[in-house]
């Protein structure tokens, strides 16, 4: 009740939306995806939930399937150009929105864990008759893809990590723990302006192009809509998951061949702003932490883009996809 009252008071104080600022529903209603969105119904933690996903089949299939796992501030739709590239090369692509994100259910009570999200993803794949598959995760999706590969060593053929977060344990490196209620209050104050500023500096290495605004509007629009409190609450729960469930200590247990595609201008570190100035300088150093990860992961290949940021697949899609296909097709031959 206290959380609801706080939300209502904050909403009443918000200024009217500008005409060019879209507002979407809590399940991203009103925002179009590049391919038809289907819904997978599953029973999880005593409730029935819906997991949105795209299943895109190639015109000339090569018999391989790639599962794309989005990051925390992203959705399945942000894989748009990667989907086009992969299906054009013959791969079937499954791109889900995880529970709590984008077009999927936003449960009020849910124990978020990478184990649970992996189990949800496995249930979706089983319903589609997919067994052996490659998995590619970006940002938070890299943590999930790692956990999924650890849990399913016989099913995951290849693991691709695109600027994954979780290459370091932030709490162990001095980031203070932050309560879920604190994250929730912060997320309620999220704005397109703040998102754009952060994305410019982190996702795109200080550059900006008009097409990037679509992804700002996608996320910011959910925080403007009438379901914004559900979106903010699920976002807060998943921040807690990210900070308290590191995967970095298990990299040496990974079985599938692993490709790391890293934009070296990235400096992402969840909670970095609450660390001391001295500690902040040591966090999110992707040239070093990606190298450390590649040395710890058996059968790892590291491809770095020294001028790109956190989202190389969006910032420089041609270069990114050339490296991706070179690896996948070389492994398939």
TrEMBL record:
Q: Which UniProt keywords apply?
A: Hydrolase, Signal
Q: Which Gene3D superfamilies match?
A: alpha/beta hydrolase
Mind listing the GO molecular function terms for this protein? hydrolase activity
**Signal sequence: where?**
1-18
User: Which positions fall inside the AB hydrolase-1 domain?
Assistant: 65-317
Name the Pfam families for this protein: Abhydrolase_1
Q: Which domain of life is it from?
A: Bacteria
Keyword flag Hydrolase: yes
Q: Which PANTHER family match?
A: HYDROLASE, PUTATIVE (AFU_ORTHOLOGUE AFUA_2G14860)-RELATED (PTHR43798:SF33), MONOACYLGLYCEROL LIPASE (PTHR43798)
What's the protein name?
Alpha/beta hydrolase
What organism, scientifically named, is this protein from?
Allohahella marinimesophila
């Amino acid at each position: 009740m206290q959380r609801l009252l706080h939300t209502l008071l904050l909403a009443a104080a918000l200024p009217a939306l500008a005409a060019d600022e879209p507002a979407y529903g809590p399940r991203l209603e009103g925002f179009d995806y590049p391919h038809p969105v289907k819904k997978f119904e599953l029973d999880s933690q005593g409730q029935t939930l819906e997991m949105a996903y795209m299943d895109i089949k190639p015109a000339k299939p090569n018999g391989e399937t790639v599962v794309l796992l989005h990051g925390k501030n992203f959705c399945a739709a942000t894989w748009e150009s990667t989907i086009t590239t992969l299906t054009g090369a013959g791969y079937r692509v499954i791109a889900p929105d995880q529970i709590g994100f984008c077009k999927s259910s936003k449960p009020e009570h849910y124990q978020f864990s990478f184990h649970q999200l992996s189990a949800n993803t496995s249930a979706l794949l089983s319903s589609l008759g997919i067994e052996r598959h490659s998995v590619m995760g970006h940002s938070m999706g890299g943590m999930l893809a790692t956990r999924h590969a650890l849990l399913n060593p016989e099913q995951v053929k290849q693991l691709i990590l695109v600027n994954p977060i979780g290459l370091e344990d932030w709490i162990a490196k001095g980031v203070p723990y932050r309560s879920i209620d604190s994250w929730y209050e912060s997320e309620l104050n999220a704005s397109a302006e703040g998102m754009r500023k952060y994305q410019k500096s982190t996702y795109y290495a200080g550059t900006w192009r008009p097409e990037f605004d679509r992804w700002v509007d996608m996320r910011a629009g959910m925080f403007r809509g009438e379901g914004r409190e559900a979106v903010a609450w699920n976002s807060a729960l998943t921040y807690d998951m990210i900070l308290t469930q590191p995967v970095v200590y298990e990299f040496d247990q990974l079985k599938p061949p692993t490709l790391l595609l890293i934009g070296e201008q990235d400096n992402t570190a969840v909670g970095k702003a609450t660390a001391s100035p001295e500690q902040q300088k040591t966090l999110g150093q992707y040239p070093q932490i990606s190298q450390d990860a590649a040395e710890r992961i058996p059968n790892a290949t590291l491809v770095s883009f020294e001028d790109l940021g956190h989202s190389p697949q969006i910032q420089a899609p041609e270069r990114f996809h050339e490296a991706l296909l070179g690896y996948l097709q070389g492994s398939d031959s």
